[in-house]
Input
Amino acid sequence: MLKPQTGGFEHVVRVRQAKGFLATQKFFSLPYHLYRNNPHWVPCLWMEDRSILNRKNPFMERVELQPFLAYRGLKSTGRIAAVIHRGYNRFHRDRTGFFSFFESIPDDEAFGFLLDAAAGWLKKQGRESMRGPVHFFSPFNCGLLSEGFDAIPSIGLPYHPPSYSARLEHFGFRSQRELYVYQSKTGLLDPEVRSKIERLEIPRGVQIRPLSTASFRDEVLKIHQVYQKAWIEKWGYVPVSPQEILWIADRIRPYLDPNLVWVAEFRNEMIGFAMALPDFHPILQKPVLRSLSPALVSRLVRLGDLRCARVVAVGVLPERQRAGVGSRLVYKVWGEALQSGYQTLAWGGVPQGEDHLHRFLHRWGATIDQTYRIYERSL
Output
């Protein structure tokens, strides 16, 4: 823990809870100032949404979040949010706390005071460790970028400078899990792999079809039911309520390409799904476009020449996972992506330890493009 400083007001680092309209504005706008000259950073639009802290957000029914801002003089220099997820704690029967929205100027004092503020708040709430960065308001974002700094992250994934990992480790954090983002070229799928998938005989009565946008919210709730059963044994699983999944779905819907979402049914019951999202991050690479509203970005997505899509989720009911349904769903997404002109598929992040998923991706010709890391420290 860092000691209080002495010196002039303009040189002292202070950390304050981010309360009120102006502080909230500073909290969410800080990355735009920190990264304004960085060509690899783009905003994650639905994550940089001030409505996240609104009590009407269904996540806030089970999540307690305390945001902090660091100042040097009158200038904000960093931010962090301490997070308690009661649903996670009940399901895993532990007292883990989390941190999210972490950003800071390259300054050990700002880093240390921000981390201490979040840790102190979590400890007072009875938490025994602090893990992160974790973003519970998006199922597609998790971890701190630790390898692959010279590329623009895929949609939904954050960018961090190389210094963050070393500074977290300096303040006692240790790697808890690594997550890998893969990339593959749609036009380079091994013909032998393609032929093998096409010969797969899925069980009689199973139908694979595209997502119905006419009944979008009903489809989302069915996907939610599959997710709850398919992911329950996976690392980091967090139960998600129907209201939470609809809240997420409403935010990604403007960017959705219906051709990239496929579902499998058996006797009118959904048994699996595969979802990819158009990667519009290259559109926002130019700083002048980074402050666009989600509505304008959505229009650019539909008009733009997008070359990459990110496979964000694949889920199949446990009793159907050995029937080839997952491979067929992914094959449908791949085929539609190829026909629609997407040249690259990004996959993940895939946690370390999920060996079957890594083998699956290698068969698809995918290679690791970026690595994210979850850190943890005892309190």
